[in-house]
Amino acid sequence: MAARMEQLILDLFAIEAVKFGDFTLKSGIQSPIYFDLRVIVSYPVIMNEVAELLWETTKTSGANFATVCGVPYTALPLATLMSAHHDVPMLIRRKEAKDYGTKKMIEGKFEAGSSCLIVEDVVTSGSSVRETAQALESVGLVVTDAVVLLDREQGGKQKLKDSGIALQSICGTAQLLRILRKHEKIPESVAEQVRDFVRNNSFQPGPEPPVKKARKALSYGERGDLCQHPVAKQLFDIMERKKSNLAVSADLCTAAGILKLADEVGPHICMLKTHVDIITDFSAEFVQSLTQLAEQHEFLIFEDRKFADIGSTVQHQYQDGLYQISGWAHLINAHALPGPGVLEGLKQVGLGKQRACLLIAEMSSRGNLATGEYTKATVKMAEEHRDFVVGFISQSQLSQDPAFIHMTPGVQLCGSGDGLGQRSGDGLGQQYVSPWDAVVERRADVIIVGRGVYKDPDPATAAQRYQTAAFQAYQHRLAN
C-alpha cells in the first residue's frame, strides 16, 4: 500500500492536482501549496485508485459504518466509487435545501441510529467534515469516522477528534513533500516554504483564527522547477541565468534589420518577439540566421502571430505557407475569441514539436475589448489546455499558478531611466507603463519593449537599461 500511495502522489503532481506557488485559501490565508483535486474526475484510473486507497485505509482503521457520504462536491465521485465497488449504501448531502419536492438535506435510504462514514478529499481545519456530520446527525445518523485523501496537517484532525470524529488519511503534507523531494519534483526551498507555512498556520483549539504569515515569493528558477512544459522551463531558466525578464519586440520590416537588432540586444534579453508578416524579404536563410542567433545569445523566439480563426485554418497558418512558423518559433500567441478550437488546431501542430502558446487575455491599447468576462474565460481556457498554453499576454497577474507566465507589452522607461514614470501613449491607442509598474504593481513576469529599444540610436545600451530596470523591479518584488 505504501508503494501505491507513493505512486499516487507522483500521479497527482503530474496532473497538477497538487500545485505550488502563491494561493489564496477559502480562509483568506496565502498558502504556498494548493490541492486542486477536482481535476481527478478527468483521470478515471487515478480516481479509482484514490477510492480504493480510501477504502483500504478505512478498513485498516477498523471503522464500522453502514453507509458512506461524500462531502460535496469533490468527494462525491470518490464516495460513489467506494459504494459501487464494495456494495455499501451511499447517502448524498445537499448543500442547500430545495423549495420543491421532498426538500430533504440528506438523500438516500437509511435507518435512524445507523452509522455513516464521511469521505473527503482534503482536510485543513475539518470544518467541511463537521458541517456534513451535523447534517447527517440532524436526521438521526451517527458519525464517528471520516477518511480523507490528503490531510494538510494544520490541526484539522485534532479538531475533528475533539468533535468525536476519528479522521484517517491516505497521506499528509509532510509525507507528500518527502515523496516529491525523493523524486526531485520540487526544490528543497519550496518544500521548506510549505513546512514553514504548516508550522505557522495550524488551527489551534478555540475560536482564534490562524495568523496570516508573509513569505518569500518564488524565484524564476524555483518556478521553472515546478513547470511541466519544456518551453516554460527553458524560459524560466534563461531568465534566472541571464538575469533578464526583458523581451524585445523586433517590429522591423527587413530581415537584415531584425538580425542586426537580435545580435545587438541578444545578450540582454530572454526573448525576441517577431511579426513575420511585416518582413518584406522573408526567406529560409533569415530563419536559419535568426535561429543561430537565438542559440548563440540564449533567447527564445516568440512569433506574435495572434492566431484567431477556426482550428483547421490556424493549423495551416501555423505549419504551412511561406512562413512555416511552427518550424522555428518557440512560442506563438492566440486570441480566445474563436473558442477552444483554435487551441485544438494549434496543438495538433505544436505539441509534437514541443512548442508553446500564450493566450491574449488583456491588451495595452486604449478601448480594447479584452476585459471582464472575456478575460476570465481566457484564463479558464488556458487552465484547460495547460499542455500547450504556458501563460498570458496581459496587463496584470491573472493566475496564481506559478507555472503560468505573464507577459506585459506596452512598457517604456518614459524618459526617466530609472524604471519609474507615468503612463503615456503613442497617439495611435498604445498606452505605456513603466517597468516598475509592470513588474511590481501588475506582477508581470516578462516586459515586452519595442520602440523603446529598436528606435534608440544605441539599441544594445537601451536594452541593457530596460534589462536592469525590469530585473531590479523583479528582485524588489521577491524581497517584499
Describe the model.
With 480 residues, this protein is α/β, with parallel strands linked by helices. The chain has 17 helices and 18 strands. It has helices at residues 2-14, 44-61, 76-86, 127-137, 156-162, 173-182, 188-200, 220-226, 230-242, 255-265, 284-297, 311-319, 341-350, 372-384, 435-441, 451-454, 459-479, and strands at residues 18-24, 30-35, 67-70, 90-93, 106-107, 115-123, 142-151, 166-172, 246-250, 271-274, 300-307, 331-335, 356-360, 389-393, 405-408, 424-425, 431-432, 446-449. The protein is elongated and about 85 Å long.
Low-pLDDT stretches: 207-215, 415-424, 426-430
The CATH superfamily of the largest domain appears as Aldolase class I
CATH hierarchy, class of the largest domain: Alpha Beta
Overall mean pLDDT: 90
Q: Helix count?
A: 17
Tell me the CATH architecture of the largest domain. Answer: Alpha-Beta Barrel
The class by helix and strand makeup works out as alpha/beta
Strand order of the largest sheet: 9-10-11-12-13-14-15-18
Main sheet properties: 8 strands, parallel, barrel
Q: Which fold name corresponds to the CATH topology of the largest domain?
A: TIM Barrel
